[in-house]
Amino acid sequence: MGCKIPANTTATVYIPTLNKEDVLEGNRLASKSDGVSFQGWDENRAVFEIKSGSYTFSSNGVRKAITKKYVSSPKISYKDTVLEYGSKLNTEITCDDIDVIIRYTLDGREPDENSMIYTKPIEIEQATVLKAKSFKDRFNPSMITQAVYDFIDPNKNGIEWKLYKGAFKKLPNFETLKEISSGTVYQFGLDKIKVPKHNFALEFNSNILIKKDGEYEFYISSNDGSKLYIDDRLIVNNDGEHGPKQLSGSIFLKKGKHPIKVEYFQSGGSTTLMVHYRSQELSFQIIPGSVLFKK
What we know:
single chain; mainly beta; Immunoglobulin-like; Jelly Rolls; seven-stranded antiparallel sheet; 24 strands; globular
């Protein structure tokens, strides 16, 4: 089966199998593929959480014929998941299949046959994790589609960035460079920054609010190189010239604010930069702007 997950979202995929090690994504074990995380079992199906991107899954462990097709995944319409406090957004959910029932949740739980039924646009006016799933008689339920709506205070929240020009083969010593532009964004990434096609580097600085003591895992997906620091400690080293690649690292953090820095450079080819985190309390997700505060 093949699937394409929109940018800045995650989804859950269910693969019929008897052993998760029989599930492949492309030509690799799914459990070893970038952006794919094994979550558990649902009867004879292995459940994987996947981040945005294109995937092809197969299984050598299917022993029982699949007699029912799967419903198409619902589509969530939204323009920007980072909103200012006091604003509202009406979100629609659609499905390419006809005669389906779309059920959804607003608290991050997985939708099931007892969840709310979608009948009209949903008004979003506070931090919300919207998950939707399609159901149809004589069909298996669809994969889950997710959208995360985050609300920020522009006077407090933000990531300060600086842009540098140069032909880099690895991340430079930024203290020796002169910035050519700077600004503020609310999520780590390139979408809101006007950058050259190639030969540039970026430095991002903010403070991340940790709401509960615990072990946190941070992920960087980049093309080319990147690094992530917490409390001035290198947590993820994804440096060097390479294609899209995700690496991660863990750190125990106490409740409160901690300095966070991300460095990135691009020499040529396509540009990619995404930063996620997860913990025992948090599912794999983009770091929301509401927990990132200006220095």
